[in-house]
Each structure stands twice: as C-alpha cells, then as structure tokens.
Amino acid sequence: MQRVFVTGATGFVGRAVIQGLRADGYTVRCLVRRGSERDLRGLGAIERVEGDVLVRRGLEDDIAGCQAVIHLVGIIREHPAAASTFELVHTQGTINIIEAAAMAGVRRYLHMSALGARPGARSRYHRTKWAAEEAVRASGLGWTIFRPSVIYGRGDAFITMLAQLARRLPLVPVIGSGRQRLQPVPVEDVAEGFAGALALPGTEKQTYEVGGPDAVTMIELLDLIGAALGRRRVRKVHIPLSLMRPLTRVLHPLPGFPVTPDQLLMLQEDNVCDPAPFYSTFGIRPVRLATGIGRMLE
C-alpha cells in the first residue's frame, strides 16, 4: 500500500484530499504544525508528524518511507511578524519540501498552485506561486501541478462568507464593477484530481488548470447564492476602487478587515480557464455551480 505525505493537511482543501486518498486506499502521513492537531479530528486512521515547511531540518526524516508527496501549503494573507509571507511560505516552503522529498528518495510529487500564477503577475501572491512552480519544474521529481480557481464547499472561506453577508445585510458590498469573472470549483473535484493523479503516470510533467463548468461575475455569483438561500433578490452596493485602494492600504493590517492590497489587485482581473483537460483526464463529471452552491448551503 502506497504511503503519501501531505502538507497543508489541516486546511479546507487538505481535509478533502486526505479523505480522497483514504477512499482510494492510500496510507496518509500528515505534516502538522504544533497546535494544529485538533484540525485533523474526525479524519480517522492517518499518521501525523510534527513539523513546518519553513523549517528545512528534519523534513526528509518526516517524509522517509513515503512514495509520494502532495504539497498543499499556501496562504492568502500575510502575517510578516509570524514569518508568514508569500515569499517564505509559497516559494521557500516549496523548495524545502522538494529538496527533502528528493533526499528521502521520493519520486512522485503533486503541487497546489493557483490559477493566475504567471511571470510578471500584478499580485505578489501569483508571482510567488509562479516561482514555486518554477522550482517544482526544475526539481527532477515526477511532478504534477494543479492551478485551481476559487475552491468552494462546506467549511470554505469565500462562498460561506458571501452567504453570511447575503443573509445578514440589506445591501451586500461589491468592490468595483463586480464584472470580473471567476470559475468556482467544488473542493471534492480538486481532491479527486490529486488522488487520481497518483494512479495515472500520464499526468507527470503536466499542469492542469482547474475550474468549474461555469464562469460567473461576482454579481452573478451573489445572485446564485441568494437563490440557494431562497432570496428573490440580493441587493448590492458598489464600492469604487478609487475608495477601496487608499482604505485598503491603511486598514488591511487590522483584524477583520476583509481585503489586502494584494487581494485587491487579484479582484480586478478575471480568474477563468478551460477546465476540460482536467475533467477528461480524471474522469470527473462537472457539477453546475448553481447545483453545487445549493448542496453546500442547504
């Protein structure tokens, strides 16, 4: 039985990937930062080793005995005081893991990137995701890279937050025009792709852009959420970018402020792809966004 080493296991996507791996018969070993063990409750028989992707020493010992590594660690918001920056977590953390995997004799490596990762991207989030991809491609491992759009499902941060706003507020704030498109994908589909890639040698040295079957604007997404909640209409108020930019620069360090300058840059561009190669390769039937959101919020 293959043993798979998973980083980022305590996160929203990580928990789904673990469940997918176990359903396919893999033994799962999770890298867990001290204090995060409680986030793995309910996941059954998995191995746990304490460690941190930012601490290179000892990582190869943690990985030893595994046949594959799945690296999911990522952040959407920086906390520099805690040494949690995009450059450290996305790029250096990835370098640490691929070096340790090679030292431990692992050949197969699956990597979580992000749709929009590219050289010269406006956001540091996307630029550091691209730098991590470049390290993966140069590693000599049998790699597969996944670039998902917004991932949704029960326990997520994005659709759940929008649903809470739609429930509680008479007017839901929309930054800018709300016309930029995104392509939300169910977390179960992403997890199935990761688990499926381990059994498909043809996925090595391949990059898969991952999105759902429906590309929607933020305005359309809010209306879909409202319909799932039984709301005839979600009323919206647009906040101009000219107002959000200075506000965000000043207020983003405050706990609870919803957006950072880097996120504001990403909100101004489309986040869409052609997901057909992903769905055909892994034999996954796409779920329409209205159906997925309805199931999530029922």
Note down, in words, how this protein is organized.
The chain is of the alpha/beta class. The protein has a domain at 3-149 and 187-211 and 272-285: 3-Layer(aba) Sandwich (Rossmann fold). Helices cover 39% and strands 17% of the residues. The protein contains eleven helices and 13 strands. It has helices spanning 12-23, 59-63, 86-103, 124-137, 158-168, 187-197, 218-228, 241-251, 261-267, 276-282, 289-297; strands at residues 3-7, 27-32, 47-50, 68-71, 108-112, 142-148, 151-152, 172-175, 181-182, 185-186, 206-210, 216-217, 236-239. A seven-stranded parallel beta sheet has the order 3-2-1-4-5-6-11, sandwiched between helices. The protein has a two-stranded parallel sheet with strand order 7-10. A two-stranded parallel sheet has the order 8-13. Helix 1 links the parallel strand 1 (3-7) and strand 2 (27-32). Helix 1 (12-23) crosses helix 6 and helix 7 (218-228) packs across helix 11. It is globular. The two termini are 37 Å apart. The mean pLDDT is 94.
